[in-house]
From TrEMBL:
<dbReference type="GO" id="GO:0005546">
    <property type="term" value="F:phosphatidylinositol-4,5-bisphosphate binding"/>
</dbReference>
<keyword id="KW-0968">Cytoplasmic vesicle</keyword>
<keyword id="KW-0333">Golgi apparatus</keyword>
<keyword id="KW-0472">Membrane</keyword>
<dbReference type="GO" id="GO:0005545">
    <property type="term" value="F:1-phosphatidylinositol binding"/>
</dbReference>
<dbReference type="GO" id="GO:0048268">
    <property type="term" value="P:clathrin coat assembly"/>
</dbReference>
<keyword id="KW-0168">Coated pit</keyword>
<dbReference type="InterPro" id="IPR011417">
    <property type="entry name" value="ANTH_dom"/>
</dbReference>
<dbReference type="InterPro" id="IPR013809">
    <property type="entry name" value="ENTH"/>
</dbReference>
<dbReference type="GO" id="GO:0000149">
    <property type="term" value="F:SNARE binding"/>
</dbReference>
<dbReference type="InterPro" id="IPR045192">
    <property type="entry name" value="AP180-like"/>
</dbReference>
<dbReference type="InterPro" id="IPR014712">
    <property type="entry name" value="ANTH_dom_sf"/>
</dbReference>
<dbReference type="InterPro" id="IPR048050">
    <property type="entry name" value="ANTH_N_plant"/>
</dbReference>
<keyword id="KW-0254">Endocytosis</keyword>
<dbReference type="GO" id="GO:0072583">
    <property type="term" value="P:clathrin-dependent endocytosis"/>
</dbReference>
<dbReference type="GO" id="GO:0006900">
    <property type="term" value="P:vesicle budding from membrane"/>
</dbReference>
<feature type="domain" description="ENTH">
    <location>
        <begin position="24"/>
        <end position="155"/>
    </location>
</feature>
Length: 386
């Protein structure tokens, strides 16, 4: 009770100081600063959803509100020595990345630093598990923000790039995205932090993020394999290395979800939706590397049984290849020994890598749900399907 009263007094004191000392900044907005302070209050028993959603609503309304939000949040984070305020600030920042305005992708490194965060001015031995959790969470969000910034800068030049250069760009970004997943999988609450309800609420966001990144990696690999005969041997080798890394990350993510289920994270019982990589695609990639040729679309790289192309067409009863009436068309399989080239309508030269997003950054548990209750476990889907 004393801690709750003390925290409420500190929050009120912060509001008074904000009104008296913050007017000198060009980014000062009294309503936004009030919402940020209330969204990051000292009470660890709940998350102030109302003021949190107000912050997101301002940003979604206009990107002009993003800087005032970041300024108010950075002031709050730099001044606090309380783990509850720091964690709520990180959760608020995590949700900002989901706001649908382009300016969110240009933040770059976070405007505050919690690398050496300590609870209390002299540190608190009893709170070290919370301090470690906050430092790991901050490190991930800082790197994610930097990644999104670099990705947005690169995408500005995508429209004039060729298909081959786009494949190389995808490979480069996958190599940057995979370490980001490794960093996320290091965020694990220990000891006292692992049973705290506020920490478990943050873990719901983190698990959702792991699904998003893992799925993005798998989907992008599948997309690259669909264009693999447009790549060089070097790019094919990089792709194979990325697949091997992704396979290992699948195992690590599965262990991570087991850990999260054991401490009561509800979302860890779900299964990420990803595209599977067929064994045939992997075999074709290995054959391409073994062949030692850089030629695009060379027929000799295909397995013998695939030398003949199977083409699905819309045919009418008069054997014409085109029909304006789709209701009268019949699907016919035609086998030919001739080499024909068909355009892939799904892969355009200006295709861009999608940004990472968190669909429900501040999703809360149902009040009737026991966060420590039993959760049905599910195996993570295999990255490579046979």
């Amino acid at each position: 009770m004393w801690r709750r009263v003390s925290g409420a007094f500190k929050d009120e004191n912060s509001l008074i100081k904000a009104r008296l000392t913050s007017r000198r900044s060009t980014f000062w907005n009294p309503d936004i600063q009030k919402a940020v302070i209330k969204a990051t209050n000292h009470d660890e028993s709940y998350v102030d959803i109302h003021h949190t959603q107000c912050v997101y609503a301002w940003i979604n309304k206009s990107e002009e509100y993003l800087r005032p939000v970041l300024w108010a949040l950075s002031v709050r984070m730099e001044r606090t020595h309380n783990w509850v305020v720091a964690l709520k600030g990180l959760m608020l920042m995590h949700g900002v990345f989901c706001c649908k305005v382009p300016a969110v992708q240009t933040i770059g490194r976070l405007p505050f630093d919690l690398t050496d965060f300590k609870h209390g001015h002299s540190g608190n031995v009893k709170r070290w598990s919370f301090e470690a959790f906050i430092r790991d969470y901050y490190a991930f969000l800082d790197q994610k923000s930097a990644f999104l910034y670099l990705l947005s800068q690169q995408q500005k030049d995508n429209q004039e790039r060729s298909e081959k250069s786009l494949i190389l760009q995808d490979l480069v970004w996958l190599q940057k995205l995979q370490p980001l997943l490794d960093m996320l999988l290091q965020i694990k609450p220990r000891y006292a932090a692992s049973t705290n309800l506020l920490v478990l609420e943050a873990m719901e966001c983190i698990v959702a993020e792991s699904f998003d990144i893992y799925g993005h990696i798998c989907n992008r690999i599948v997309s690259i394999l669909g264009r693999i005969y447009s790549t060089s041997i070097t790019e094919a080798k990089i792709t194979l290395f990325i697949i091997e890394k992704a396979t290992d990350q699948q195992k690590q993510l599965s262990k991570y979800l087991d850990f999260c289920r054991n401490i009561g994270v509800v979302k860890a019982s779900e299964r990420p939706k990803v595209e599977h990589i067929s064994r045939a695609d992997i075999q074709n990639l290995e054959n391409l590397i073994k062949s030692g040729s850089n030629q695009s679309g060379n027929k000799q790289f295909l397995p013998k049984e695939e030398q003949k192309y199977v083409i699905m067409e819309e045919k009418t009863t008069t054997e014409t290849h085109e029909s304006n009436d789709s209701r009268s068309g019949l699907r016919t399989t035609i086998t030919t020994d001739e080499w024909e080239v068909f355009e892939d309508d799904e892969l355009q030269s200006d295709q861009q890598l999608e940004l990472i997003s968190l669909d429900s950054p501040m999703e809360t548990r149902n009040n009737n749900t026991n966060p420590f209750g039993y959760c049905n476990t599910h195996e993570l889907p295999d990255l490579i399907s046979f």
